[in-house]
Recover the amino acids of this structure.
């Protein structure tokens, strides 16, 4: 089997890349180890930056999104007994949009399918060879070992994929920060406490109230990293959600059936460089952020814009410029997102070894940021997202 660009992984990064390349007549094959049903029902990210939504509209992927997504002009924060709202629309003229990652993955996979795009599900890539010249990807599909020959490999296979380990260890540098807490993620059949996201700093730990629709709440509670789900009875969950949200005009916690609960560890991670030979890493395969800044999926999409521009310029103009500078271009944005995600995480979470001084200092930092126009603008600019690179030359 042969194609121009071999893409490993049908997450947001891999599917968007195959779509953008298709728009400029470049062939690709996507190899995905999981099934279609699995990837289109996997609950993960839900918040899209303004530029992500603009891009999806520009490239014809936003038809369903525009019907059901929830645009938010503002975002709210509770700390020290107060409720603060950042009005992003008023401060910077941009906003964020709630649309589940599984929905945009489904939209992209379906559109690729409709135009005859090749996505092989349950096809696990097991080896990447000849990265310095004409690469090939070995994969197992329907019990058979097969080979995909290509000009370039896009490693869009997430944190546990095989692309990143295919960069020789002596050329790779990993930067890592593991946080001393995790998030208990809850999907609840109930109206969310507010129409907007509410981030809560509280003496017993962080909480976030988000949503997947007007009737489904997505809530997160900071927990210890090795916490067992068995320790979180429904009574304890509701008591912590209520306590961490606090009492504020306009916010009310409605109880409902808990549809899903999962504990996720939190880490920051960057692997440099994001390219080696004809292999280009995009999305979670190259970097991970703690979800506090809602940057993971948006960063994956930002990488793919840079990569598609490079590949299009190569195939249309035989110009290597954007491909050669791929890693450098992406990493500038990646590190800004890493910083923002780390900052939001450390400012809003309770560190279990913190002393009363640390707690007071954290409260002072929150007032410094959220009681100030400049501080609020800084949060708004990063939260609604930095400008994307153009996806074509
Ligand atoms: C549990 C969880 C919750 C999250 N919550 C949030 C959130 O609330 N907000 C936020 O912004 N971000 C969140 N994220 C992060 C966000 O979902 C990711 O940043 C985003 O999915 C990155 O997209 P991607 O395309 O790079 O990788 P992925 O979406 O991980 O896609 C990679 C794909 O590659 C496939 N694959 C892996 N190995 C192989 C192989 N060898 N062969 C073939 N296919 C392979 C995988 O099956 C997968 O489908 C969360 C992540 C997780 C894991």
């Amino acid at each position: 089997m042969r194609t121009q660009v071999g893409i490993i992984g049908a997450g947001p990064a891999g599917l968007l890349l195959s779509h953008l390349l298709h728009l400029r007549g470049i062939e690709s094959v996507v190899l995905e180890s999981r099934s279609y049903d699995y990837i289109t029902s996997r609950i993960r990210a839900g918040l899209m930056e303004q530029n992500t939504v603009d891009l999806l509209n520009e490239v014809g992927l936003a038809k369903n999104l525009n019907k059901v997504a929830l645009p938010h002009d503002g975002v709210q924060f509770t700390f020290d007994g107060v409720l603060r709202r950042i009005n992003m629309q008023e401060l910077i003229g941009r906003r964020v949009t709630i649309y589940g990652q599984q929905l945009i993955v489904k939209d992209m996979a379906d559109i690729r399918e409709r135009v005859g795009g090749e996505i092989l599900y349950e096809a696990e890539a097991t080896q990447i060879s000849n990265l310095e010249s004409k690469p090939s990807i070995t994969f197992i599909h329907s019990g058979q070992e097969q080979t995909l020959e290509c000009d370039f490999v896009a490693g869009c296979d997430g944190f546990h994929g095989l692309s990143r380990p295919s960069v020789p260890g002596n050329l790779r540098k990993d930067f890592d920060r593991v946080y001393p807490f995790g998030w208990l993620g809850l999907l609840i059949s109930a109206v969310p406490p507010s129409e907007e996201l509410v981030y809560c700093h509280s003496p017993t730990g962080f909480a976030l109230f988000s949503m997947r629709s007007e009737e489904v709440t997505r809530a997160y509670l900071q927990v210890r990293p090795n916490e067992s789900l068995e320790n979180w009875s429904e009574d304890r969950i509701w008591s912590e959600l209520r306590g961490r949200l606090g009492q504020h005009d306009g916010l009310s916690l409605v109880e409902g059936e808990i549809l899903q609960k999962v504990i996720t560890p939190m880490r920051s991670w960057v692997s440099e460089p994001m390219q080696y030979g004809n292999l280009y890493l995009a999305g979670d395969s190259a970097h991970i952020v703690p979800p506090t800044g809602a940057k993971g999926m948006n960063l994956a999409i930002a990488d793919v814009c840079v990569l598609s521009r490079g590949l299009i310029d190569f195939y249309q103009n035989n110009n290597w410029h954007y491909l050669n500078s791929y890693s450098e271009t992406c990493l500038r944005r990646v590190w800004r997102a890493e910083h923002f995600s780390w900052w939001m995480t450390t400012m809003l979470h309770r560190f279990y070894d913190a002393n009363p001084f640390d707690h007071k200092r954290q409260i002072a930092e929150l007032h410094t940021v959220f009681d100030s126009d400049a501080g609020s603008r800084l949060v708004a600019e990063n939260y609604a997202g930095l400008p994307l690179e153009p996806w074509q030359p």
